[in-house]
Design a protein that fits this description.
single chain, eight-stranded mixed β-sheet
Length: 207
């Protein structure tokens, strides 16, 4: 009898594990955007956009969730995120300054990312770099998670596009995707959804 009940318990745990893992396999995805009231007027002056490395808003190897979930993040995830969302401005019809070229230009002119955010220096920095706007953001989550019942990857980003003429935020996007996919696939899905939502809000060039 004892063996029978142990078998029932093990079978129940096995089935729960399968159900939990099947739930983990399905993608969790959300993208929301906020657009400035002045974007319609300002976008006509925007031709070239640069993208700088994203900053971190979460500690590495942080535990999250149930079942002793462990979380690890690549050291260069800020660069990966910035490279991965380059599709957003491109799909909206804007020219994008190559990121390595942008870094060289900033180093040559002694500019930092802070100069692209301060209203006192943003216009001069834009003219020096030959850009009309810059995309920057923060990484809330970016990494692999594992626990007893499965694994996955998660990307959560807060993105904003800033006018280098006025220093104002033209649009922002809050993006999250969690699935058993590679980082390129996660970032591509986020980019496509964000670009489509921004297009509907009138951000696309030529609209």
């Amino acid at each position: 009898m004892k063996t029978y009940w142990l078998s029932i318990v093990y079978l129940g745990l096995f089935l729960c594990g399968l159900l939990f893992q099947s739930g983990c396999c399905s993608a969790r995805h959300s993208v929301s955007v906020v657009v400035s009231r002045d974007v319609e007027a300002q976008k006509m002056a925007i031709k070239r956009i640069g993208i700088v490395s994203f900053q971190f808003a979460r500690l590495e190897n942080e535990r999250l969730g149930p079942y002793d979930t462990t979380y690890s993040r690549p050291k260069d995830s800020g660069e990966i995120a910035a490279d991965g969302i380059v599709e957003i401005p491109m799909m909206l019809g804007y020219a994008v300054v190559e990121r390595k070229q942008l870094k060289v230009l900033m180093d040559e002119n002694g500019l930092t990312e802070t100069d692209l955010m301060k209203k006192e220096t943003v216009a001069k920095a834009g003219k020096t770099l030959g850009m009309d706007a810059v995309i920057m953001g923060t990484v809330s989550e970016f990494g692999n998670w594992t626990h007893a019942f499965g694994w996955g990857r998660v990307v959560s980003l807060n993105i904003k596009c800033i006018s280098l003429e006025t220093g104002e935020v033209l649009w922002s996007a809050t993006c999250h995707r969690e699935a058993q996919e590679g980082y390129p696939e996660l970032l591509h899905a986020i980019s496509v959804d964000a670009a489509e939502k921004l297009r509907k809000e009138g951000v696309a060039k030529g609209r």
